[in-house]
Amino acid sequence: MAAEYNYIIYIYFLVAILAIQGESVHYEFGKTYKYTYDTKILFNEESGQKESRAQQDVGLRIRLEFDFTPLFEGDGSQLVRLQVSQATLTSMHRGGMEGQLLDMVKLPLYFEYQDGEVGRVWAIEGDSVFCTNIKKGIVSLFQLQATAGERTELDISGECKSMYKISGPTIVKQKLECDNMEIAGLHSNKNEVFGISTRSSSTWTYQLENSVIHSVMGSDRHVAALNIRSSNYPLLDMLLPSAPEVQTCTPNTCTKPQDLVGKVKESLVSEKVGSAESACAFLKMLKAFRNSGKEAISETLTSHDSSYIVSQLLDVGVATQTPGAQRALMELLNFEEQKNLIYPLRYLLATAYTTHPGDYLIKDLLAMLRNRPPSREIKEGMALALGAVIYSYCRVPEQCQNEVVKEYESLILEQYKACSSEECRLLYIRSMGNSGLPQFTDTIFEAIRDKSGSSMMGFTAVQALRRIPGQYIGELEQQVLLKIFHQTERTYDSSVRASAAELLLGQNTSKSTVINILLSAMHDQKQHELSTFILRKIVDLARYDKQLRDILLNLLNDPSINNYNIWAQRGKSSAFSSLLTETADANATYGLYMEMARSGVMKKSAMDVNIVNKDSVQRLLSFGIYASGLESLVGETPDPEEGEEEATAGLGLKILDVLLPPVEFFRGSGGLMSAVWNAPTEPVSALQVTMLLQDHSERFHLGNGLVVELTVLGAVSIDLTGAVSISLWNRNSQSLIRNSGAMVIEGTMKLDSEMGQAGAVFTAEGESYIDFETDVDFYNTPFKMCMQMKRPKTSFKHTFNKFEKATKFDRKYKSTLRRVSHIDGLSYFLSPKNSDECKALLVDK
C-alpha cells in the first residue's frame, strides 16, 4: 500500500498568465504611458478532465490599468513611478462575480530602471504586502535584455537564471530556475522516496516597437508530483522579489490544541493506532501544535482530555519540530526514573523519525546521554534515536559540518571506549549504524575484527555499515570484508559471513568479487546452508541491481561458474523477494530470507519491505528473528565451527532503516521455559507509533507578484502485534505477526492573501494489514516449517477539493471530487521450498 499514493503529490497545477498592451511607443522623461494589465491564477489537477463543473479550474483574475512615468533621468538611469488607476478582482469559476480593489489605486511604487534592468524598489509605507507584490510583478515585466544568451537576474521570483532568444522585434524570455530568497519556515523531507517533487516553468514573449516594450504575454506553471531622492511620503527601500503576506491565526482559521484534543481523543486511543482514523487525528493535532506556542502545547499535554492518549500526543509533539514543542515535552518527561518508562521510550521512538530536526533537539539529546540515564532501556533508546536524528540532520550536507555533529561523534566514541562489557559496546555500535557517519568506519571495522567478540557483535557491526555511503567503503575495507567472509583471520558466525557477502555485493561490486563468492560456495560444503543462502541471495539481489545482474549474466557464459556443483546446493536456506504492489512511479517489494543452521534448525529469518523507484531504494520495514544455540534444546549436535553458545532467540526491527532496540525472547533453557509458559496466545501490541513520512512546505513566487504556498503532510500509523502458541507435548508451534498500518496524506496548494483565497486541497487515505503466520513441527527431524503471508482486500480513498473566495465576493465557491480504488486481497508467494513444506505440514488441516 505504501506506493499507492505517489502520484498524488504530482496532481496539481498552477498557471499564472499575464498580458500587457501598450499605447505608447517609447519612454520619454516626463511623459506618462498608460497600460492595461490582466493576470489570472488557476488551480486544478494536472491533466485533469474538465467535463463537469466540479472538474473546471478555480482561481482569481486581476485586471487593472496603470501609469508608467519616468520622473528623473541621469547617467543612463531612470527613476520611474508606477501608479495604478483602476483595479478589478474577478472569480475565474463564476464570471459575473467581481469587486473593485480600491486599495490598489491609493499609493504609487517607485523603481530604478537602467538598460532594461530593474534596480532598487521603493514602496510607500502603509501600502499592503498584497498591493506591493502586484505592483512588483508589473515592474518585473520591464526587466528585459535585448541581447540573446543566458544571464542571472533578480526579479519577482528571486534570483533566476534567464535565457533570452531574439527574433526581430520578438524577444522570448525563459526562466530556467529561480532560487527563492525567502527560506524561513520552509522545509522538506530530504528522503528522496518520501520527498515532494515540484517542477516549474516560466516563459514570456515580448513585442518591441521603437526599442520599447509594446506587449508582453506569458505564463508561470508550477506542478507539485525583490533611495528615492525626494518624496512627500515615507518610503520603504526594498528588493524586487515578492514577499509573503503574513496571515495571523484567528478562531475561524486556527483551532487551539486545547479545544481540538477533546474532539479527536477517541480517534487517538491506543486501540485505533494503525488505522486511518488515528492518522487523520494525528495530522489535525499536528497542525494545531505547529500554530501554537510552548504554553498551549504544555496545557494540552496535561489536560484531562489527554490522560488516555498521552503516548499518541507525544508522537504529535515530536513531529511538530519546533523549539516550543520540544521545551514542552522536556518539561513533561522524566528520563531519570528506572520505572514508568513508557512515555520517555515513546518520545525517543518518535524522535528517531523527525524529518527536519533542529540543533535544539540534538543538544537536548546529547545533554541527556552525557548525563548517563540510570535506565538501560532509556540509554539505549536515546543512543539509537540520537544516531537516527543525526542521519536526518546530515541529509542537508552543510548542516553536517555544524558543531552538534562533532559533539555527537566525540560523545559516542568516548562512551564506547569506556564500555566494560560487550552489551554496552553493542549499544553504541547500533547508534553509529543509525547515524551513517563515515567517521565511524574504522571503529566499526575494529569491532568486526575483534577476536573476543560474539556472533551478535560481528553481525551488528557489519549491519552498522549499511548507511555509510559507498565511497567510504574503499578497496581496503572491501578486502577486510572478504577476509571476514573467508574467515582468514578468525572464525565467524555464518550470519556475520552472510552479511559481509551481502555488503560486498551491494557496494558497486566487481566481477572478481562475485567470482570469489560463487567459487567459495562450491567448495565450502561443510557450511552448505550458508552456501545455499549466499547463492539464493546473489540471484535475488541481481533482480533489482542492474550492475550485479549484468556481471552475473556474463559469468553464466563460463562453464566453471554455470555448473551443477555451484548451483545445485542441498541446503534449505532461502532468499526470495517479489512485488508487494506496483505503481507508475515506484514499486513496493517484499523479501523473505531464511538462513538455517547445519543441523536444520532455523538460525535467522527476516522479512524486508522496500520501496524502489528508478533512482533509489527506501527500506520501509525489516523485522528478523535470530536464534543461536538451539541445537542442544532439540537434541541436535551444535556446529563445531561455531562453538557451543547459550540458547538465545530474539527479534530485530528496523523501520525506515532506523534500527530499534532489539527484543530478546529468551536466554538459556530457563528463559525458554518462561517464554513458553508466558507466550501470548492472543495478539499483543509490541510497537505502536505514528510518524510523518511527508513534511513539505514551499512557496512559489509567481511572475505576477502573487505568492502561492504548497504544503504536504503525510502520516503513517503503525501497530505491530504478535501472538504465539507453543506445545511442548506435541512439539509444534504457531505464531502470528500482524503489521497493521494506515497512511493519510494531505496536500494544499493555495493563494492565501488579504484580498482572497483560491487553491486546491487533496487528501488520500488507506489502511490495511499484513499477516505473517508460521507453523513449525519439531516432533521429528528434519523439522517442518510453513510460512504464510497474506493481506485482506482494502480500499484507497482520494478526495480533491477546489475553492475560491474573496472579500469582494458575496459568497464563496467549493467543489469536491471523490474517488475510491479497491485492492484485492492476496496471499503472497514466498518460495518453492516453502510451498512444498506447507503442503507437507498442512495436509491434514
> Quick one: how many beta strands?
28
User: In whole angstroms, how far apart are the ends?
Assistant: 31 Å
Work out the helicity level.
Answer: 25-40%
Q: Helix segment count? A: 21
The pLDDT mean sits at 81
Rg to the nearest angstrom?
Answer: 32 Å
**Uncertain residue segments:** 1-26, 225-235
The 3D shape can be described as elongated
Strand proportion: 35-45%
Largest sheet: 13 strands, antiparallel
Core attributes:
13-stranded antiparallel sheet; 28% helix; eight-stranded antiparallel sheet; alpha+beta
What does this protein structure show overall?
The longest helix is centred in the middle third of the chain and has 18 residues, at 376-393. The protein is α+β, with helices and mostly antiparallel strands and 845 residues long. The chain starts with 11 loop residues before the first strand and ends with a helix. The model is unreliable at 1-26 and 225-235 (pLDDT under 50). Helix 4 runs parallel beside helix 6. It is built from 21 helices and 28 strands. It is elongated. Strands 1, 2, 3, 4, 5, 6, 7, 8, 9, 10, 11, 12 and 13 form a 13-stranded antiparallel beta sheet that branches. Strand 4 (77-91) and strand 5 (98-100) form a beta hairpin.
